[in-house]
Design brief:
Layout (H helix, E strand, L loop, with lengths): L1 H6 L3 H12 L6 E5 L5 H7 L5 E6 L2 H13 L6 E5 L2 H4 L6 E7 L8 H11 E10 L3 H16 L11 H10 L2 E8 L3 E8 L2
Parallel strand pairs: 1-2, 1-4, 2-3, 4-5
Antiparallel strand pairs: 5-7, 6-7
Length: about 190
């Protein structure tokens, strides 16, 4: 949170925020899946979103996000749900916009995650993910090898962007914007009328 307060949101968070603003998806409710310390939620609340629900499996992240909500005077417009989104999704209500900033890469199989997230999205859907490039795959392989050596069970994954896009479009959304960094892509989709 110190870095966020000092330097603002990271690259993918900025790209998703700006894409949602350009698409006119900054009204109503937000469901921020894997929201971490709440950076994207706070950015969107500051731009017009009325209410945000941040879901994250990390109690430490949620504690920091909760403190930040109090500091910003957003404690009445921000709700925190601890747990794996796929498992907790049945307890959550749909939102105007659903965001997944750097979350898809944490799941070995993206399909259940996207299926549940899309089921909750009424008007907009935003997702950032590692680009499917050779150098990204090598970097992910190296990070996973280091984690394995340190007996850390966490792994990251690079999924097929065209397959994810087909799934999102199949749920009734169309691509409004795609912005990329060297290693990440940030896509914003709008529900077709």
């Amino acid at each position: 949170m110190t870095r966020y307060r000092r330097k603002g949101p990271g690259p993918t968070t900025r790209l998703l925020r700006d894409g949602l603003v350009r698409a006119g998806l900054i009204e109503g409710t937000l469901l921020d899946v894997g929201g971490g310390v709440g950076a994207l939620s706070f950015e969107l609340l500051d731009r017009g979103v009325a209410r945000a629900v941040i879901v994250d499996a990390s109690p430490a992240y949620l504690a920091v996000a909760s403190e930040e909500a109090v500091r910003r005077g957003r404690s009445t417009t921000t709700e925190f749900v601890r747990g794996d989104f796929v498992r907790a999704s049945d307890q959550l209500t749909p939102a105007d916009v659903v965001t997944l900033d750097r979350v898809v890469c944490c799941y070995p199989f993206y399909e259940p995650l996207l299926e549940q997230a899309l089921r909750h999205a009424k008007r907009g859907f935003a997702v950032s993910y590692p680009r499917d490039r050779w150098y990204v795959s090598i970097g992910v392989w190296f990070e996973n090898a280091v984690r394995k050596r340190r007996a850390n069970p966490f792994r990251t994954f690079v999924h097929s962007p065209p397959a994810m896009q087909r799934m999102i479009e199949g749920a009734g959304f169309e691509l409004a914007s795609r912005r990329c960094t060297l290693t990440w892509s940030a896509d914003v989709f709008v529900k077709r009328a």
